[in-house]
Design a protein that fits this description.
single chain; eight-stranded mixed beta sheet; binds 3-hydroxybutanoyl-coenzyme A; Rossmann fold; N-(1-d-carboxylethyl)-l-norvaline Dehydrogenase, domain 2
Length: about 475
């Protein structure tokens, strides 16, 4: 199965990126759009993307011209008749995709492989619309397609032997790593990523923390390339909404219901980067600036106090002990139970250090604004970025990270994908510094299991209960997941 001529139908953000990827790898590309205006937009996207590479000295002008010269643009699907592979990247509406595939089936030669870049729709349903279901696969790229190194190759129960191998080999030619998976809603990456993004929106709606602070915590604290709201804007809120709908339809888990705020923004036409405004608009990201407090006296309590006291002392701030303006209570659990034991509970702020750059600062229902502001100032003094949040189990980072890790364990335990494939998919598809299993092992299985128990006890969300496999490994004293 030789792929030399490739069709790309739909030249939006993803389609234009995919066309560029094929052209860069030396394949001839036929790009199809509905009308001349959309075609011009697609051409503009490819010109800008390759132009940026020239500006950065990654491509010469001549190489760029060669790449763009390999792409033929047309509004006629009939021009795809000789393509060896056609990939579709049109909007995520099953009826549109089904009717496109019926069409392609009639146009293309019988050996052509038809692929869908769907984020979550059933590849099987799309394949069944054609007379060649054995030659229909999912070929799922990640945004921005020229940059992200993963491709999920999705097979169905009727995919012909050989097709998946050939398409995976092609992915290698494109400089991508292929992870092959079966046809389940969200595949590997979106099944793990989107619930986390939806959860971030829920935390913001519950007022646990603000948009910029959540983004900052996940970027600086966990080392993710982008915070969840920046990423939602990149993916597109409409696409994110659609993926959540499909996940919810399959799982019927309440936490998979798209957040009402997502629906509101999508209905208002605020789709993220593609429409110019989503969670973020024109303005820049400003992590919340706690108002400067006046002269501060402070005390520190809880495990790890000495180190923080020493860091503050090195910056010229001495602990004053009893009767301080603010009591910094180091903790990885809510601190209100400690606050109520103080003479003045309004002075207590929970401090949870995440990585070496972020301090989550938990205000209880009793914490005064002055104490919260003083805590933020003290963290800045020692070079930490404060992330103000409510005094809830998991604060921000653990509340978002642990359920994602738990989902990965359940996915593996259900037999859907191997540990190595899941880890590779999240690293290469989303630019995570480590896959979920690598993260679990470096955080410590027991710590994550216990954190999940605390989250479950607080939110009573069934999916937050530790996955049985995780629980059993902790009970058995294991520090790693068995790789079979
Ligand atoms: N098109 C082409 N190239 C782009 C680009 C784009 N839209 N955006 C960035 N780049 C290139 C830059 O030119 C630069 O290239 P260079 O290293 O050769 O100079 C490189 O990417 C890094 O870009 P920047 O320095 O401008 O910015 P960052 O270092 O912040 O990286 C990022 C940007 C690559 C987008 C990074 O933030 C990242 O990896 N974010 C996570 C993205 C992610 O998770 N994607 C998956 C989403 S899920 C999905 O798509 C599935 C769908 O079904 C929903």
């Amino acid at each position: 199965m030789a792929f030399e001529r490739v069709g790309v139908v739909g030249l939006g953000t993803m389609g234009a990126g995919i066309a560029e990827v094929f052209a860069r790898a030396g394949l001839r590309v036929i790009g199809v759009e509905a009308d001349a205006e959309m075609l011009a937009r697609g051409r503009g996207l490819m010109e800008r993307s390759t132009g940026r590479a020239v500006d950065k000295g990654k491509l010469t002008g001549a190489e760029r011209d060669e790449i763009l010269g390999r792409v033929t643009l047309t509004t006629s699907r009939a021009d795809l008749r000789d393509a060896d592979l056609v990939i579709e990247a049109i909007p995520e509406i099953l009826d549109y995709k089904v009717s496109l595939f019926e069409d392609l089936d009639g146009i293309c030669k019988p050996e052509t492989v038809l692929a869908t870049n769907t984020s979550s729709l059933s590849v099987t349903a799309i394949a069944a619309a054609t007379g060649r279901p054995g030659r229909v696969v999912g070929l799922h790229f990640f945004n921005p397609a020229p940059v992200m190194r993963l491709v999920e190759v999705v097979s169905t129960v009727v995919t012909e032997p050989g097709v998946v191998g050939a398409v995976s080999e092609l992915a290698g030619r494109l400089g991508k790593t292929a992870v092959t998976v079966g046809d389940r809603a969200g595949f590997v990456v979106n099944r793990l990523l989107l619930p986390y993004l939806n959860h971030a929106v829920a935390l913001m709606e519950q007022g646990v923390a603000g948009r910029d602070d959540i983004d900052l915590a996940m970027k600086l604290g966990v080392g993710l390339p982008m915070g969840p709201f920046t990423l939602l804007d990149l993916i597109g809120l409409d696409t994110s909404y659609e993926v959540m709908e499909v996940l919810f339809d399959e799982t019927r888990e309440r936490r998979h219901a798209p957040s009402p705020l997502l629906r509101e923004l999508v209905t208002a036409g605020l789709l993220g980067r593609k429409s110019g405004r989503g969670f973020y608009g024109e303005e820049r990201v400003h992590p919340s600036e706690a108002g400067r407090s006046g002269a501060i006296t402070f005390d520190v309590a809880g495990p790890g106090s000495e180190e923080l006291v020493a860091r503050l002392a090195a910056a010229g701030f001495e602990r004053s002990g009893e009767g301080a303006d603010v009591v910094l209570r180091l903790a990885d659990r809510p601190v209100v139970e400690h606050a109520v034991r103080l003479r003045d509970p309004a002075t207590m702020v929970g401090v949870h250090l995440v990585g070496d750059q972020v301090a989550e600062l938990a205000s209880t229902a009793l914490t005064s604004d002055a104490a919260a502001a003083a805590a933020a100032d003290l963290m800045k003094v020692v070079g930490l970025s404060p992330v103000p949040c409510k005094d809830r189990a998991g604060f921000v980072v653990d509340a978002l990270l642990y359920p994602y890790l738990n989902d990965a364990v359940r996915m593996h335990d259900a037999g859907y994908a191997s540990i190595d494939d899941i880890d590779a998919a999240m690293r290469l598809g989303c630019g995570y510094p480590a896959g979920p299993f690598q993260m679990l092992e470096s955080l410590g299985l027991a710590r994550v299991r216990d954190g999940l128990r605390a989250l479950y006890a607080e939110y009573r969300e069934p999916a937050f209960a530790p996955a049985p496999l995780l629980d059993q490994l902790v009970t058995a004293g294991a520090s790693e997941f068995p790789r079979r």
